[in-house]
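the four lines:
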Amino acid sequence: MDISNYLYLSVILFTIGALGVLIRRNAIVIFMCIELMLNASNLALVTFSRINGNLDGQVASFFTMVVAACEVVVGLAIIVTIYRSRRSASVDDASLLKN
Amino acid sequence: MRTSSHLVYLIALPLFSAALLLLLGRIADKWGHLLATLISATTFGIGVAEFFSMHSQSGANRAVTQKIFEWISVGNLKVDASLLLDQLSVCFVLLITGVGTLIHIYSIAYMDHDKDRRRFFAYLNLFIAAMLLLVLGDSYLNLYVGWEGVGLASYLLIGFWNQNPAYAVAAKKAFIANRVGDVGLSLAIMISFAQFGTVSFAGVQAGAPHASPVALSAIGAMLLLAAAGKSAQFPLQSWLGDAMAGPTPVSALIHAATMVTAGVYLITRSNFIFDASSTARILVVTVGVITLLFGAIVGTAKDDIKKALAASTMSQIGYMILATGLGPVGYAFAIMHLLTHGFFKAGMFLGAGSVMHGMEDEVNMRKYGGLAKLMPITAVTFGLGYLAILGVPPFAGFYSKDKIIETAFNQGGGKGILLGGAALIGAGITAFYMTRVVVLTFSGARRWKEGAHPHESSILMWAPMVVLAIGSVASGFLLSFGSSLVNWLQPVVNASNSVGGKELMNPWVVSLLALAVVVLGAGYAITKYRTVEAVAPEKVSIFTKAARKDLFQDDVNDALLVKPGKALTLGLVATDNYVIDGAVRLVGWVLSEISDVLRKIQNGYVRTYALIMLAGVFIGALIIWVVTV
Amino acid sequence: MNLLTITILLPLVGTAALAVAPRGNTQIIKIIALVSSLITLVSSLLMLTKYKFGVTGFQLVSSHTWFKVFNINYAVGIDGLALVLILLTTVLVPIVVVGGWNEAEGGRWSVKTFYMLILVLEMFMVAVFAATDVFLFYVIFEVMLIPVYFLIGGYGRGDRAAAALKFLLYSLFGGLLMLAAVIGIFVISIKQGPGSFDVTTLSHLKISHNTQDWLFLGFFIAFAIKAPLFPFHTWLPGAARSATPGTSILVLGVLDKVGTYGMIRFCLTLFPEATKTFAPYIIALSLASIIYGAFLAIGQKDLNSLIAFTSISHFGFIVLGIFALTSQGITGASLYMVNHGFSTAALFLVGGWMIQRRKSTQVEDFGGLQRITPVMAWCFFIAGLSALALPGLSSFVSEFLVLIGTFTRYPAAAVIGTLGIVMAALYVLILVQRSLHGSLQAGNEDTPDLNWREKVAIAPVIVALVLLGFYPKPAIHLINPATSQVMVAAQSSDPTPLAGR
Amino acid sequence: MLTTPALNYNLLAPILIVLGGALLGVLVEGFIGKAYRARIQIVIALASIAAALGWVISIHNVTSQSAAVDSVSIDGGGLFMQGAILALAFVALLFFTQNDHFAPQASALPGSVEEAEAIRAGVQMTEIYPLVLFAVSGMLLFPVAHDLITLFVALEVLSIPLYIITGLARRRRLLSQEAALKYFLLGAYSSAFFLFGGAFLYGFSGSLSLGVIRTAAATPGSNHIFLFLGVLFMSVGLLFKVGAVPFHSWTPDVYQGAPTPVTGFMAACTKVAAFGAMFRIFIVGFGAIQTDWRPLFVGVAIVTMAGGAIAAIVQRDVKRTLAYSSITHAGFLLAGVIALSKAGLTSMMFYLVAYGFATIGAFGIVTLVRDSTGEVNDLNRWAGLGKKSPGIATAFALFLMSFGGIPLTAGFIAKFSIFTAAYASGNIAIVVVGVLSSAIALFFYLRVVLIMFFKEPTDETVTVAVPSFLVSTGIVICFAITLVLGVYPNLLFNLANTMTTLVP
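prediction for all of em together
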């Protein structure tokens, strides 16, 4: 199989994520879309690592996972707080700050 | 050229006296008028002394100069504050200081009850100083200073009683009409400088032969405009009638004898320009003829004695201007008429002032009548002036005015007949309206207001009148005897002794013709005004109505200048607010509208923000794609 | 220390003295301000005695490194033009202090702050004319607006805050355009050698036509706003309506001169070719200013905005003279700056006193003052006469020089310019007629005439107007070398007389 | 025998000190009683930042070198940025200390019983301080990072704590939480782009190191589509952090919602870190393909300058106004990146310091204007501040003037020098748009001055809190630096000028 297909997949995943952020309203889902984008990046890193024939990309993807995990922690904390305050996880409800 | 160190005093003394009287204020009330008169007499003394010292020299050696200080020096423009007293200016110096002194004396009595008499005398001295500067300046620029200076003095004196709104308006009108003329003078100066690199009389004279005809005509036309403003010539004549708002001595000195003749001086002084440009000469004679008829016609219908005399002044100056346009021969006659006019017109104005003084400041001639008996000295002096202006031999006007008519005829051809004929008709009309004035005022029934007690004025007032009357009688003969004035002015104006080389009409014929029209005019007036109503009749011919309204001069100015000017002003005020500042506000408005749009885009939704980011990514990709491919 | 620097710093010393003065005692504060401004005046007169007449180039120069990386120096020096403008400043400030003795009272802040702002402004005004480093000039050009902003906004009347903001925004906008141009010329100087902001060095740069045009416009628009020239003038009437008389005098009398000064010092000197390119258009604008300002002056009902519009007309003359590019034009314009300073000062001073007495700024509320207050009326009248450039008063010499200098190069422009002479008579005499002549308006009966303090304030102004009218030689001699230097830098020479060729 | 890569601890020490301080702070949270926590945390935070700053100063003229294999470059430029971040953070922290800006109990619901109890107990969340220290350590790492992993990690280390502290405001908690959510979601979104871009750069060059990427970019003929995608996506992440249009939308909301002292800290320090990193990435990594990305950046700079200035016109909230102002400034700072020259770097460094202190000072003053319910951010209620508290109003006016670039303030010198650099590099359009935007921006700066000084006080309930010693110190420092750098810029500019070396 042509290795570039992995890259196409990665681009497709990234695009899905990027568009998902625009379309979905639930903060958790939006956040998952972002995670999807990060994972798409990871896939790209790993694929390139394979193409380039060195391990830098694979190492980088581990860093990414760790960072993503941190983001999850903080992100969920924030989302949960908001949910508790508002009884809603819709990002559209959180739109007091504007204009 | 000879130099003198005294000339400056001619100007400095009255100037300082004026400043002193104004600065000291009420402290000087007691003696201010005496100081002013003394100073004026002193300048006359200096003038006489200079005249005799000049007279003792010969021909070309007579002119005297004095450099006072370097005034302006920038690039090749070098103008010194220098004075030039030559044969031409000395005539003026004597006229100004002489008549000026007489009028100072007259005013001591005339202005006796006015609590601002000191201020009046300060203005008079200011005028003397400015007028002397006008005639003594050795360059157009120095002349210009005096030129505007007399305008200021005239403004101040016309508006002397400026608490009266009408008088204040009259003063303003005079100044502004003069300013229009001043523009002409300043443009003439600019053209001269651009052409010759100098603005001194001598420099321009030396350069004139090298200049293009167009330039010379332009200078001439601009000088004429200046003269028209100052001398109340068509089309800038409208201010003079209103200027009679000033105290009568002022009318005599400034608006009859001296300032208004400055235009004649200017043209005569610039003879080298007009000699070189026939176009300019044609303009000059046209203006002269129009004005002399205009003034005469207006004079026939005026019931206000001062306005009648003012119209006459305008007309007489028209004669002088006409003369200056007749080529080298005319200058001397213009000056001669100017001098004789200075005597008789000043005398008549003082007479009018004397009458008003006796009639509680009544100016309407229809309310006079039969005053000769009660004011004999006034009547006699006025009558002598009257004879002089009519040109009855051997009174002064005969020598000067007839010469002008004669010279006009001698232009030859249609032009000669046109100019001469107009001048002749003018003489007839002059006779009519002056007779009217005399008849209405001094003879006939008494049409006085109740409570009027006409009486002869005090000696301080009649003495100057007598002196001027003597001048009205004798000056013409003295100036023309042996062509004395013509010869005297010869070095300055290149006037030839005879009336041109081509004497087309015998002088006697002209004189007889002139006398005939005068008799006609005077006779008609006498018959017409045997009986006069105290109130001006309403039902009069359209011509009379037109003349009463100064031939619609103010209406024309109103329609052509004032109304459009006011409309333009209002329009521009609105433009400034709505267009110019509006554009600025528009920029502000547009920016704040954009800002508002941006504010609305910032709608608080995360998804929108992400969308904006993603759009940014796409546009960025597009830019990079465009750049790199 | 260099005398020029001392003169610049003296007002700052005064400010410091004011800062420690007791806030409550306004008399002491005013006296400190007066004394400080008088000392500055003496110092500037000392400069005059040290100045070598007839020598071209800057004198009393002094230069210290300020901002090393950009080779920016505190570089000051004066030529004749700068000197006369500095003298104008140092003469006017004490007059403003004496003439407006009580105008700070009733302001938003204390009297003390008012005089501190005035003195700081004086320092900047002296420094701006002394600066020979373009950057230094720019900095002062901008920063001097701040005290004016607070003077108008804090002590003015009417809609003062809006007027102050409009003034500041307009000026800063122009300043920013100029900043772009300053940067541009500096970058060019880097490319042609060691970068420099020295005006003399910069004038020797070779700049391409196109670049010159843009840089020129950057400078010019800033100066045109400051001057102000039609159509960049709309900030002025509002500012004049709102400012106190003293502030108006300093703004119109001195501050705005920085604009026209800048045109001579920078536009002409640094961009000779662009100057020639744009001169016809600028002359058209200046003519528009002359006529437009005059018409609007006639149409004004408010005394202060009337005076403001007369100034717009006069600035038109100044700009006309500058861009005629003849020695008469430039000298005339330079002299005009000084004369206009005095004549505006006289108008605003007396106008301010009239307004203060009548409690109204509307011309129609005055009337018949000539009889009641002859001295005040005379002073106003003389000020008016100088505004209409009556010969014998100083403005005449300069206006005439401008026009004659313009005529030799642009005859048509000069002819149109002479319309301004008539218009000036109109707006001045209409004003005089309405406010001083005629019957007495109700409410004016008990108007007091000028008191001693006011007479002392106005006397030097009138003396200057008369003296410079009859004997302008010293000023012209100061300015002439500067003019000839500018003419050389602008690569221009006077047209030769036509008839002699 | 395993060999470990050589780490130059001397050069890494500033980062490690701050990280250490942060860890210590975490321990304090665990082991020290509530009564003493706040004070101890403040001392730890200030001390560790001061120590790090001291260390940076002591090593400020070491020769440029790689400190951790190829991952961290300690060079003039990096050290200057670190010093600036530390100095700004120190001053910003001073404003954390007065008043109660932070939620008593972040987990408690707004308006709940728990919250009321916590308020009664007079507690405040002191976790703020270690979080700030973590953020600072990320900021310190960001501008010296020399490979893509380090960059990404540093970016996240600086961002994540900021997401949290944004949501910790004591009052208007809903707004604060919303700001945190927005910041977090959009921040993560942009990080994803950044990472994705990094992946492509790695794919293009076969290495994560900026140096290698540069070499690869300079050789023609390779697969440049990866390179340009990489550049574009990384730019998104960086431009987001500096708040450039169109990646700016979070800025006004987050600036408004975050506790005010945090806003000041964030606005000043994040900008330094992000611009430091951006300059390094673009000159070290992408310097060779300048002509390809410059148009993009010119476009961004132009819309950022103009957009920020215009959008601010109708704002009525002081914090939002300052947010838009910060957007405009981001545009001006981009001019330095676009110039991509030594002069550009120098002026950018100066600009960051000048802007940073003015910003911290300005937000610091915002914390002082209060009524009984907390801060008053409505500008109209600031009317008459000049009368109530002339000193504070004057200081605020000075900061605004510095933002506006009025001469004799640091902001003017900054603007002048950065425009000069842009002009010298041939980007005249930037300069022209820059000055026009400055003119627009001046309108709203001056309007604030006008409101403070020329409007009569209308609202008597608005008062200016008396600043504590630390806060006064902070304001005075900001004020002095803004003024002194304006009058005598040599002090900092000469230093910046000598510290422009960057490890290739």
